[in-house]
C-alpha cells in the first residue's frame, strides 16, 4: 500500500542507515541490500518491493546474491531469497547477469550488481606478493 | 487508495510463531495517509506536556540593599553593597553582569509549559503513526531488527495477555524472532552525554518493540522488566510511544483483541468510528502514490501533449586529442593511425635488428613472433598426439570400406593444397576453420586432382592404400609424412577429421 515513492520521501533524510560525512554531498547508506551503499531512491534496499544485494559468501569463496520475493513484501521472514554463487568469476558473473536479466528483476541494477560481485571476488583473491614483504590476505 | 483499497488478510500467530489459521482483515487505519510532518509537530507539542516547571529563586540576587555610588567616585555606576567590614562591601550587585547579581530575565514558573493541540490533529498523527507501523520499509528504517518476523503488522494470539512470568514473555519474543530487536537495546545501553548524568538521567538505551494489548491479564507485569519493551492498551494509544522521537515506524506487536478493536476505534472511510464521536479517518491528498505507475498510466498519458524535446548542447570533444571524436569525423583516421603505429614498430624492430647484427647479439623474438611459434609447436604436439592415438586403433578402422578410402585419398591431395591456407593462418581460431573450409572446398578439387594424381602416384600406392584406406589415418599419412613437410600432415589430419566431422554436423 505504501508506494516506494512515498516511503522514500519519508525516509530520505531521516533513517537509521543514513550516513553523512563532511564535505561529501551525497549521503551513504549502511543498509544491507544496497548495491553501492549510496542513499538514493534507486539503490535503496528497503523501500522497493524488489531489491538485490550482493554479499561475500560465508566461507569466503564466491558471493551470495540476496533478492526479495516481490509477493511477500509484508512477511519479512519469507521475502528474502539467497543464492550462493561459488563457481569461478566468469561463470558466477554470468549467472548473476542471467538471474537478473532473464527474470527482468530490477534490470536497472544489473551493472551495479555485477560490479559489486566483481569487487567481492577480487577481494577474495590472494593479494600479489610484493617484493620485500609477503602480503597475503584471505 | 483510500476508499477502494483492498484490505488484505493478516494471519494471526500463536505464541509459538505458528499461524493459527484465523485471519483478520487489515483495519482501515493502516491505509491512512502517513504524514511525518504532522506527526512531528504533534509529537513536539505533546512532549512538552509532561514537563515540570523550573525556575530560579525569585529573590535570587536581590537580597542586598545595594545602591549606586553615583558619579564622581572613579568607579562604575553599578549599585554597590553598603556597609563595610567584609569583602562584600562595595561589590557590585543586582546586575546580571555582577558577581552575585541576579541573572538576566530570571526564569519564572508561570512559563507556558504545556501546549494544547487540536484533537483532530492529535488523531491524525496517531493514525499516521499506526499506519506507518505496518510498512516494513519504515520500521526497518527506524532501525528495528525485524528481518525474521513472520508478518507485518504482527498480530498475536490473546494468550499472550495472560502471561505472568517474564520468562514466558522472553520465550515468546524469542519465538517470534523479535528478540533481535531487544538484543539491540541491550547493546545500546550507555551513559548519557552531558550534564544529564548528574541530574538523574544517567543511562540511556534504545527503544524496542511496543506491545499493544486489549486486556491486561498479567501481560504488563510479564513484559515490563524486559529492556526496551513498552506496553499500551489499545484504548489509550499514545503518540509518544507509537512515534518515539517524532519519527514514524515503531515496531508494534498487536494482540488479537487489540487489533480487532482498531476498526471500532478509528472507523473506515465508509463508516465513522464508533468510539470516537463523529470521527472518520483523514482523507489523503493523493489516493495513489505510486509515481511510476501514474506516469505510465494511459489515462494520464492520453491527455498530455507531446513532450517538447529540447536539443541539448553536446560537449564538443577535440578530435585531435579524443580518438572517438576523430573517428566520427574521419573513419579513415583509424587506418592511418594503425598504419603509423605498425610502421613505427617495424622500423624500431629493424633498427634493433641492425644493431644486434652489428653487435653480434641475437635478439629475442617479438611478442607476435613468439606467440606464433608457440602456437605452431602446440599444434604440432597435438597432431602428434592424435596420430599416436589413432595408430593404436588400426584394426577397428580396417573394417571400414573404400568410401573412407576415397575420403582418405581426397584428404591426401588437398593436403598439399591446404598447406598454404593453413600456414598463412596461424592464429588459433583460423587454424581450425581454414582447413575445414579448405577440406570441403578442396574435397571437391580433390576429386578432380585425385583422379589426375591417381594415375601416377596411386598405381603404386593403390593396393596399399586401399588396404590401408581404412587404416588411412595411421599409416598413409605416416608415409606422406616423409615426403612433404610435416605441416602437410597437420592439415591432412585436420581436414580428415573435419571433413568427417562436418557432414556429421
TrEMBL record, chain A:
The lineage of its organism: Eukaryota, Metazoa, Ecdysozoa, Arthropoda, Hexapoda. Residues 6-123 form the Ribosomal eL28/Mak16 domain. The keyword Ribosomal protein applies. It comes from Cryptotermes secundus. GO terms for biological process: translation. One of its GO terms (molecular function) is structural constituent of ribosome. It holds the Pfam family Ribosomal_L28e. Belongs to the eukaryotic ribosomal protein eL28 family. Keywords: Ribonucleoprotein, Ribosomal protein. This is Large ribosomal subunit protein eL28. Gene3D superfamilies: 3.30.390.110. The gene is RpL28. InterPro entries: Ribosomal_eL28, Ribosomal_eL28/Mak16.
Automatic annotation (TrEMBL), chain B:
PROSITE patterns: RIBOSOMAL_L1E. Residues 366-505 are annotated as: Disordered. Signal peptide: none annotated. Residues 422-441 have a biased composition (Low complexity). One of its GO terms (molecular function) is structural constituent of ribosome. Residues 277-347 form the Large ribosomal subunit protein uL4 C-terminal domain. GO terms for cellular component: ribonucleoprotein complex; ribosome. Residues 370-421, 442-505 have a biased composition (Basic and acidic residues). GO terms for biological process: translation. Keywords: Ribonucleoprotein, Ribosomal protein. SUPFAM superfamilies: Ribosomal protein L4. Belongs to the universal ribosomal protein uL4 family. This is 60S ribosomal protein L4. It comes from Cryptotermes secundus. The lineage of its organism: Eukaryota, Metazoa, Ecdysozoa, Arthropoda, Hexapoda. The gene is RpL4_2.
